[in-house]
Design a protein that fits this description.
Helix content is 62%, strand content 7%. The protein is an alpha/beta fold. It folds into 3 domains: 162 residues, Globin-like; 116 residues, Four Helix Bundle (Hemerythrin (Met), subunit A); 182 residues, Reverse transcriptase/Diguanylate cyclase domain (Alpha-Beta Plaits, 2-Layer Sandwich), CATH 3.30.70. The strands form 2 sheets. The chain has a 6-stranded mixed sheet with strand order 1-3-4-2-7-8. The radius of gyration is 28 Å and the shape is globular. The chain starts with 15 loop residues before the first helix and ends in a 31-residue tail after the last strand.
Length: 504
């Protein structure tokens, strides 16, 4: 609904949507008289909390929105944030400033993109709030002309705010989509023959473990529900398929085929075999079904691997770990998997201690050698299903899949010990030893990956300040603030290009 006297952006206006929105914003503010502005500000202040509550009650009933808003911290904090947002948009004094307002909307849009809030839900929320304000205004104003003026002001102000928010959302989401595609291309650039043989061996190893369990009659760790036999979904092959194979084969029928076969094995075939064994029945039919399903998995994977075309992309040239520009793509994927599968994952932030001293004492070539050896150690210590990034000059970040706090702590201690035991021989013949300070943060259900990165980062700094060469876990209930919109502080450490080694 246009503001009186305000037309659309002229055809010759080439200064961008933000400038056009700024002109519309200032015209809308100037068109409102002081008495009506005060009345609207008081009405919004009185209604903001109720409107925010109504808004979240509606969204929590939406199956698409509910998983994003089910976390207590999101629900409690966002209700207050939404109420405050409304009050700032319709403040009486000081007069709302466009630049400040626009920066806030852009930050909200960036957070929405990180959390992957569907853009149509934002539009629905705005519609609910505008309807709620319109009803309250109609009950409070007898003068029809002033009522129309106030309704137009609400419509214009909220539309401008949502427009800026969604512009930032789309821009951020496009960037992450490009990175997701580059991340997939990175996986396609690997030695696919080696990857195929490694996972073929992992599948056969799991199959052999099942047969040995049947022969020995013993319970096996990681058993499928309702059976003593090991679940394929929790095997090394199963973890690889869910967390890395799903990237390599994205968009291909193999994903649904293998997932369906694995579900049948864990949900039906293994329980049938175990049940028949427990009652002294014949397990031959069950074993035949098991071997048939395993054979089909091997066949469809072989076909899928043969259909992939690899190109070289996205690897850190020095350490051969992932470039951290892929971090948003993979963390969004892991968060979605964790919410769907109800299993946690952990971030392990690793910072090499006194690294500047290595460069100062031995030169940057020695620093490069240390980084390469540290990366080799980290990659060799992690599981095949885990994902290792070079996060900064001498920092690495491990995404430890399906890992709770205790397992993450154990993995981090293994990494710390392995790094400390790594002997680095320089070209000069000198030997240096490195240690690492390590921080852990376990996913607690909050959908914003920036908060989890901040928690791991803070824990790593606690380890460094506590004496180095140690592991520190973030609190189980994370309380890190949202990353600031400015380019200082934690926002300066958001995923982006890794600096050149010479800068460390």
């Amino acid at each position: 609904m246009p503001t009186p006297g305000v037309t659309g952006t002229p055809a010759g206006d080439r200064d961008g949507p933000s400038a056009a929105a700024g002109r519309d914003w200032r015209r809308a503010q100037a068109a409102l008289d002081d008495d009506l502005r005060l009345h609207l500000a008081e009405l919004v202040a009185d209604a903001a909390d109720d409107l925010a509550g109504d808004f979240y009650r509606v969204l929590l009933a939406d199956p698409e929105a509910a998983p994003l808003l089910s976390h207590d911290l999101v629900r409690t904090r966002l209700r207050a944030s939404l109420a405050g947002w409304l009050c700032r948009l319709f403040a009486n004094a000081p007069l709302p400033d466009f630049d400040t307002m626009a920066a806030g909307q852009r930050h909200i849009g960036e957070v929405h993109a990180r959390v992957r809030v569907p853009i149509h839900l934002v539009g629905r929320g705005a519609r609910l709030i505008k309807a709620g304000l319109a009803g309250r205004l109609a009950a409070s104003l007898d003068d029809r002309d002033r009522l129309v003026q106030a309704l137009i002001h609400i419509e214009t102000v909220m539309d401008i705010a949502i427009e800026l928010m969604n512009t930032a959302f789309v821009s951020d989401l496009k960037r992450e989509t490009r990175n997701e595609e580059a991340y997939r291309l990175f996986f396609l650039s690997q030695d696919l023959t080696l990857e195929r043989e490694s996972q073929r061996a992992a599948l056969l190893e799991w199959n052999q473990t099942v047969l040995l369990a049947l022969a020995g009659g013993a319970h096996v760790a990681g058993a499928a529900t309702g059976t003593t036999l090991p679940a394929i979904g929790r095997s090394e092959f199963g973890l690889w398929f869910h967390h890395r194979g799903s990237i390599m084969f994205e968009g291909l029928p193999v994903l649904d085929q293998v997932a369906r076969l694995m579900q049948a094995i864990d949900g039906r075939v293994l329980p049938d075999i175990d049940g028949a064994r427990a009652t002294g029945g014949d397990i031959a039919a069950g074993l035949g079904a098991l071997q048939g399903a395993v054979g089909e998995i091997r066949f469809v994977l072989k076909q899928a691997f043969e259909g992939l075309i690899g190109i070289e992309a996205g690897r850190d040239a020095l350490t051969r770990t992932l470039n951290r520009r892929f971090l948003p793509a993979i963390l969004n994927r892991e968060i979605a998997l964790a919410l769907r599968r109800k299993r946690p994952f952990a971030l392990i932030m690793i910072d090499l201690d006194h690294f500047k001293a290595i460069n100062d004492a031995h030169g940057h070539s020695a620093g490069d050698a240390a980084l390469r050896r540290a990366a080799e150690t980290i990659l060799g210590t992690c599981r095949g299903s885990d994902i290792v990034f070079r996060y900064g000059g001498e920092e690495f970040l491990v995404v430890a899949v399906e890992t709770d706090d205790a397992a993450a702590r154990e993995m981090a201690e293994r990494l710390r010990a392995a790094i400390a035991a790594t002997d680095i021989t320089l070209a000069s013949g000198a030997h240096i030893v490195i240690t690492a300070s390590i921080g852990i943060a376990v996913f607690d259900g909050h959908p914003d990956y920036g908060r989890l990165i901040d928690a791991a980062d803070r824990a790593m700094y606690d380890a460094k300040h506590g004496g180095r060469d140690r592991v520190v876990s973030a609190p189980t209930s994370l309380t890190c603030p949202e990353p600031a919109p400015a380019t200082t502080g934690s926002a300066a450490r958001s995923p982006g290009p890794v600096p050149a080694q010479g800068a460390t």
